[in-house]
Amino acid sequence: MNQTQSILTLMKQDHHHIESLLDALDEHLDASMQEIKQYFEQFEWNLEKHLFIEEKAIFTFYEPEDMSQGYKMVPTVISQHNYILNKLKNMRKIINSGIQPTDLDEFKSFLIKHRNYEERDVYPKLEEELTDEQKKVIINRINEIR
Q1: Fold for domain 3-145?
Q2: Deepest of 11, 14, 36, 50, by most Cβ within 10 A of its Cβ?
């Protein structure tokens, strides 16, 4: 499989992009609420696409060889995604009511922890266990959505 088109490489690129969007939002918290809202919406959209890619384009193919390890990994990721989505929902409510978000550092720390878990444990495991054909389909889906 072409290393530049591996699941791990593509998702690392996506993680970097999402983190740069969060940094841009953080850097513009002293801007007008309209600008804050625009930065947030761009960040939110890209993060939601990323979660969709993971849950719909990647995990639909994952049938772990070691059931106890594999099926422990997926619920952990899904649980973290639910936390992220709830934080986004709360941030959207706050921003839509004209208030600047205040807990971006905490959220950023959680996203980094989540990213590290995926890049260290999840994606390498998928790369190891998925067939080349499955990887090809997933990579095509990732590229369609990104």
Answers
A1: Four Helix Bundle (Hemerythrin (Met), subunit A) (1.20.120)
A2: 11
The burial of 7, by beta-carbon neighbours within 10 Å (0-12 exposed, 13-18 middle, 19 or more buried), is given as buried
How far CA 59 is from CA of 35, 62, 63, 69, in Å, comes to: 35, 5, 8, 14
Could you tell me if 133 and 5 are in contact, meaning their C-beta atoms sit under 8 angstroms apart? Answer: no
pLDDT band at residue 2 using 50, 70 and 90 as cut-offs? very low
Quote the crossing angle between the two packed helices 33-52 and 7-27, to the nearest 10°. 170
End-to-end CA distance of the chain: 20
Distance CA 111, CA 23 (A): 12
